[in-house]
Amino acid sequence: MAKGLIAEKIGMAQVFDAEGQVIPVTILRVGPCAVSQIKTVSNDGYDAVQLSFYDIKEKSVSKAAKGHLSKAGISTPKRHLKEFREFGIEVSAGSEIGISDVFALNDIVKVTGTSKGKGFQGVIKRHNFAGGPKTHGSRFQRHPGSIGAGSTPSRVFKGMKMGGRTGADKSTVRNLKIVKINVEENLLFISGNVPGSDTSIVTIEKI
């Protein structure tokens, strides 16, 4: 069963295990998340739980979003809504879910977020091309080179590796381990790195 919450990436740090080894960790501020909607097969065609996260001012939310949250009994406007299918635990609309309700120490999780945007990049940074020689008068260094034949096929095939927009894509990192939990401050310490920049929003789910 997939159980997860919405979180905000705080940044990276390091902790020490029982043997004194350094473990690089990512700190996530997880929840608490309020249940904004419960979807069912009979009403919506599938089963899912929609969670809301990150309090905002009332003037910053639309009337439609405000009405949607009010219907679930949530008085404070939220900025982010995410759905989780096969949530695995019984919840009710308007209830709050915290770290201790879903995660425990040493759980294996996956984190999904939007990777850092790199803008328009060339083939060397985007696709790890080797480039050409830098000496002996070579004028071919950071270029892509030939992209197709001449008269046959007289076009460039789709999917050709070329320069273009890089990053800012949905990305998931799996098999991360929870090494430390701070329930009082809603902080989760996860081994390794996760997608996105600091303060970005991610979803974390148990595997």
SS-derived structural category: mainly beta
The CATH superfamily of the largest domain appears as Translation factors
Report how far apart the termini are. Answer: 8 Å
Largest sheet: 6 strands, antiparallel, barrel
Radius of gyration from CA coordinates: 23 Å
Beta-strand percentage? 35-45%
Task: Write up this protein.
The model has no long low-confidence stretch (mean pLDDT 91). By secondary structure, the protein is mainly β. The protein contains four helices and twelve strands; from the N terminus they run βββαβαββαββαββββ. It folds into two domains: 4-117 and 170-206, Elongation Factor Tu (Ef-tu), domain 3; 118-167, no CATH class. Helix content is 11%, strand content 42%. It has helices at 41-44, 63-71, 99-102, 123-127; strands at residues 4-16, 22-30, 33-39, 48-55, 78-85, 96-97, 108-114, 117-121, 164-167, 170-182, 187-191, 201-206. The chain has a six-stranded antiparallel beta barrel with strand order 1-2-11-10-7-12. Strands 5-4-3-6 form a four-stranded antiparallel beta sheet. The protein is extended and about 70 Å long.
Give the tags.
single chain, four-stranded antiparallel beta sheet, 2 domains, Elongation Factor Tu (Ef-tu), domain 3, six-stranded antiparallel beta barrel, mainly beta, extended, 42% strand, 207 residues
